[in-house]
């Protein structure tokens, strides 16, 4: 069995996730999200979907991007 990097649970169904140079062992998607999901540059929430990106900054939605001064990103065409 392996131990979850977040909660320390010793679990027989852990899995690993790799993003770039970062790899973690987790017992649930909740723990994986806590560590691996990017954070919105405006509101700080975890970005679980596609999100939007401008000038190297990730936002959970176009609204947060606009609130941070990005004017070209929109939710709908």
Automatic annotation (TrEMBL):
Source species: Georgenia halotolerans
Protein name per UniProt: Metallothionein
